[in-house]
Amino acid sequence: MTMVNLTINGKQIQAEQGTTILEAARAAGIYIPTLCYHPELRPEGACRLCMVEASGARTLVASCVYPVSEGLVVKTNTDKVREARKTVVELLLANHPKDCLCCQKSGDCELQKIAADLGLRKIRFEGGETKAHTIDCSNPSLVRDQEKCILCGRCIRICRDVQGMSVYSFAGRGFNTIVSTAFEHDLKDAVCTYCGQCASVCPTGAIVEKDDTEQVWKAINDPDKVVIVQTAPSVRVALGEELGIPAGSIVTGKMVAALRSLGFDKVFDTNFSADLTIMEEGHEFIDRLQNGGVLPMITSCSPGWVNMIELKYPDLLPHLSTAKSPQQMFGAVAKTYYAEKAGIDPAKIVSVSVMPCTAKKAEAQREEMCDSGYRDVDVVITTRELGRMIREAGIDFAALPEEHFDSPLGTGTGAAVIFGNTGGVMEAALRTVADVVSGEDLPKIEYEEVRGMEETREATLNIAGKEIKIAVVNTLASAHKMLDRIKAGTADYQFIEVMACPGGCIGGGGQPVPVNREIRQKRREALFDCDRMSELRKSHENPEIKALYDNWLGKPLGEKAHHLLHTHYSAKVR
Amino acid sequence: MKSLEDLHKLREKLKADIKLRKDEGTKIIVGMGTCGIAAGAREVMSAILDELAVRKLLNVQVQQTGCIGMCEKEVLVDVIRPGEPRITYGKVKPEDVKKIIAEHVVNGRIVEELVVGKLEQE
Amino acid sequence: MQHIRAHVLVCGGTGCKSAGSKEIQLGFAKYLEEYGLQNEVMLVETGCHGFCEHGPLVIVYPEGTFYCHVKPEDVKEIVESHLYKGRIVERLLYREPLSHEQVPNYSEIGFYKKQQRLVLANCGAINPEMIEEYIAVGGYEALAKAVTTMTPEEVVDEVKKSGLRGRGGGGFPTGMKWQFAKNSVSDKKYVICNADEGDPGAFMDRSVLEGDPHRVLEGMAICGYAIGADEGYIYVRAEYPLAIKRLRTAIEQAEKMGLLGENIFGSGFNFTLHIKEGAGAFVCGEETALMASIEGKRGMPRPRPPFPAVSGLWGKPTNINNVETFANVAQIIVNGADWYCQYGTERSKGTKVFALTGKINNTGLAEVPMGITMREIIYDIGGGITNGKKFKAVQIGGPSGGCLPESMLDLPVDYDSLIAAGAMMGSGGLVVMDEDTCMVDVAKFFLNFTQSESCGKCTPCREGTKRMLEILTRITEGQGREGDIELLENLAKNIKETALCGLGQTAPNPVLSTLKYFRDEYEAHIKEKRCPAGVCEKLASYTITDACRGCGLCARNCPVQAISGKIKEKHVINQDICIKCGACMAACPFKAITKG
């Protein structure tokens, strides 16, 4: 590693050769504002906000792409620089709606923050033309308002480089340039998985999750409805960020209390149904392994991932586990088993789920997801939306007491909680599969072999005397590669876990923003803390799950389970 | 083509084809006024072109000109070798062509018996 | 077989072709046969002569007679009179615009006399579809010399020594560029020829490709040898079908002769060429956008560094030059850098081809030695301003260049003088404007072009040029505000500082240069709501003079009933109602209505 010496604002600093001025400045604690730059995306140098003076350069340079060099002298705060930055932001605002106060992104908007930071008080180009577009709210997950788009291209880059989907690209020229889907189709007609990564990197309100909070408020305030809620594993380690609590804080108890304060009748846990998923999926794997089923079997909890394989690799669908995702298993059980047990007319139940994910909204609306006889899950809101509801209700989140989930769908094991990060479903499954196959209560709980943040990992494990080769994949770009290998016959795994988002659900498209590698790492560590603090750490040990099978479902993969907890997939053509 | 020499050889061969577009070499000018044509200038011209082709004299330009007022001496043929006086031959018949080319154009010896005029070049 | 005594060169450049030169060519074939001359007169289709204003052009050798505006019905006369009888068809000769003298010979025409045709030497003189003609005039000698007698270092050094600078825009020293690419270590390198000629009115690259394609291929191959590349791309816009066709023919012929391909001249040097057709986006002339386009991506520039010489096409070291630059290379190698250096100035060597357009008598292509004055180009070569009008300004360097006024006419035309004057060499577009031109309108025109051709990637270019255009538009519409000039200047300054690529950084130039030299015109528009040149419709006012006979035609033609008056008495226009459509002026039989 070669280090070079440079000066930024008179401060002598060292930086690794090949890094940019921006990286060197940030490492030295010097703030340079950015918009199109995102730490996890290839820099484009497009917005021209991060301009600085650099010795030897003819004009100002974009610090996000300009490499450091020995003896370079950089100034980030001269009059010239400040004027240039202000002009850039002024130009962006001149072509941007001014209804910030009513914008869903208000408060989280990077453009808004930068305009405030730069002290912009006047836009000199009033009365000029502004772009005019209709809003795309064609789909259950995402809303695109191109009038708010500042053409930073982050959505294009994340969709292409991280997710391998390339839904968006620039189209048009000059002032008429837009971020467009193919043929300017609405997202419902584009090859979009609704993973929401674009929304999580969009600096403005141009791409946001579809806000379903009104539906929830309406249900809560309807005296005829019984409103129950489930919360996904990764929500409890991210929700705090929406409410001023540092990243990586576990806020499970406060979250339950907040949900009760909001008026939910019962507060349940998706961890319960995550354990149920492991029971079904684990037994399905054992069955495929022992009876010559299609291998490798691939997990199916991540709806962005399921959408992707249905859209792009339909011939590989037999590899997908038929087990429903925890959200949908919960929905199916809540309106049957729970309704029966609690003596509630399932027609009166409104089943809400809080998810880290925008694709979950679309998953709940899949035609086949009504095995309970009703819509299994009625409304899905994201972590961000729950944060907004809590703020809207004026709840002092930090001051809330810690409360517990309701029963009988409120108990989850440590295996369930790690579902929220990459490798977690695999590890949870292994914990159960190993015990079931060996018929013992094995002491091994933690499978370090499958943990990590790399996008593709693999391991060969000895499960009850049998060698099993597994792989864990996160991000859809890596999933594409894995499926290509399966097609080519070069993926000799028995079991593969795929999650659509970087790091798994902790990096989901519905999680609080901003998000980056560091924040995801903190959320992930918090999830493992939850696991370690759990008394029960194997799904099959969950007493509520045991009761469910004993009293109502029968056995895993049994007839009732098959009807309620398993699904099918089909090629989707758009 | 495998070497510089190959290219040079080819060029020498091809050069003649476009020589015409450069103002160099010997010029033969045939009077093609109405009088000249009536006296058989076309036939003389054809004979010149044939003879040049037979002798592969690629370096010679053939031009025409109109009536110069010596109509009784048609067909008039001028030969100008680079740096030498312009020689005008009169009453040229196709059968004279071989001699004019062999003697004058190729060897620089004026065919005195046919000469009707001589003009020093400026 | 007969001796070929005459060549008839029919121009097959795009200009002449669209003026009907194909028919003329067919006519010649027909009449030569009719007069029995088909074996002694050779018919040749050539590339562009650059004198397109006067096309279709026919040149007859050995006399070098230059016929212009030839129509199909003239062909029989040329064959009978000139080729059969030796009498020049005088009515088809070129006439000098100022002296009205007839000029029979190609080389005597004023338009050509002051030119120094090095790059264009073969354009119009040889058949571009026959490699034999190129070889006959010395073609591929340079490539042979380079690969068999010189080391790559020597080639780069010779180009460096020649002082050749890029002919496509910024004027970066070509030899240095080659050196950078040569210094990059890689298993694969590329040579790219930028033939994405996009400046409005510029067509020198097209003419070279159409008229002398082998010259470009030879230059590229020499570059490939010098930098260590074995593959090249010619990125040429799809709107140049003839250039593409001739390039394809040329590549095919060169490959057949072993002048491209493997082991060229037995030297072990391999070089293959591909043609990539561009879809005609102006920004694809920017080298990083061009490479993105070749890679199949949207043509958008990317920040530099890394420069293409380090990481270019598909991440490999790449050298990009434009057509005219490559067309200069062979003669430098054959004749040596010292020979080349005799042309041009201290820091701008050689010649430059300009495309003369606008209010100038001889529109067309002119190649001149660097350092010649603008006055010589416009008056001696260009034949002065049309209709005897007064010169006002010349826009040089395409839409990103600048407008220079009369006081700059004696400016020597070279890279550095132009930059100092607020313009640039660009690709060599020269638009001449006369006294009837409104400079604010001109600035608006060019900005409108760059604004709509912006790739939309960076904020200053995408949004900033739009706002500048809006301000210019309102000024020309009489809505200019106090402070607009300062706002334009401020925006222009910031765009120049912050835009990502050359297109954005130079987009404000037409505004800045017109503000510098014609500020009073801006002020007249803003403060007096007046367009001094009478161009801006919304600022024009129509008035009826005493020449009015009271016929009432104007009133009847006015669509908004703004004109009143009794029959046989002078009429008046109500300025508050008038929409400045000009219908009255057009209708008046007595020229009694003036616009000002």
Structure description:
The complex is a heterotrimer of chains A (574), B (122) and C (596). Chain A has 574 residues and is an alpha/beta fold. Chain A has 19 helices and 17 strands. Chain B has one domain (22-119): Glutaredoxin (3-Layer(aba) Sandwich). With 122 residues, chain B is an alpha+beta fold. Chain B has helices at residues 4-19, 34-38, 41-54, 97-106, and strands at residues 26-31, 60-65, 77-80, 86-89, 115-119. Helix content of chain B is 37%, strand content 20%. Chain B has 4 helices and 5 strands, in the order αβααβββαβ. Helices cover 38% and strands 16% of the residues of chain C. In chain C, helix 6 packs across helix 13 (323-335), helix 9 (204-211) runs parallel beside helix 11 (241-256) and helix 18 (459-476) packs antiparallel against helix 19. Chains B and C meet through helix 1, strand 1, helix 3 and strand 2 of B and strand 1, helix 5 and helix 6 of C.
List strands and helices in order, with pairings.
The complex is a heterotrimer of chains A (574), B (122) and C (596).
Chain A: E1 3-8, E2 11-16, H1 21-27, E3 51-54, E4 61-62, E5 73-75, H2 79-94, H3 110-117, E6 142-144, H4 154-162, E7 169-171, E8 178-180, H5 197-201, E9 207-209, H6 213-220, E10 226-231, H7 239-242, H8 252-262, E11 266-269, H9 270-291, E12 297-298, H10 303-312, H11 326-342, E13 349-355, H12 359-364, E14 379-382, H13 383-392, H14 414-417, H15 424-438, E15 456-463, E16 466-474, H16 476-488, E17 495-499, H17 517-533, H18 543-553, H19 559-565
Helix pairs in contact in A: 9-11, 9-15
Chain B: H1 4-19, E1 26-31, H2 34-38, H3 41-54, E2 60-65, E3 77-80, E4 86-89, H4 97-106, E5 115-119
Parallel strand pairs in B: 1-2
Antiparallel strand pairs in B: 1-3, 3-4, 4-5
Chain C: E1 6-11, H1 14-18, H2 21-34, E2 41-46, E3 58-61, E4 65-67, H3 75-84, E5 94-95, E6 102-103, H4 110-113, H5 131-136, H6 141-149, H7 152-162, H8 174-183, E7 190-195, H9 204-211, H10 213-227, E8 231-237, H11 241-256, E9 261-264, E10 269-278, H12 287-294, E11 318-322, H13 323-335, H14 337-341, E12 351-358, E13 364-369, H15 374-381, E14 391-396, E15 402-405, H16 415-420, E16 429-434, H17 439-453, H18 459-476, H19 484-498, H20 502-506, H21 509-517, H22 519-527, E17 542-544, H23 553-557, E18 563-564, E19 572-573, H24 583-587, E20 593-595
Parallel strand pairs in C: 1-2, 7-8, 7-11, 8-10, 12-16
Antiparallel strand pairs in C: 1-3, 3-4, 5-6, 9-10, 12-13, 14-15, 14-16, 17-20, 18-19
Helix pairs in contact in C: 2-3, 6-10, 6-13, 7-8, 7-10, 9-10, 9-11, 10-13, 17-18, 18-19, 19-21
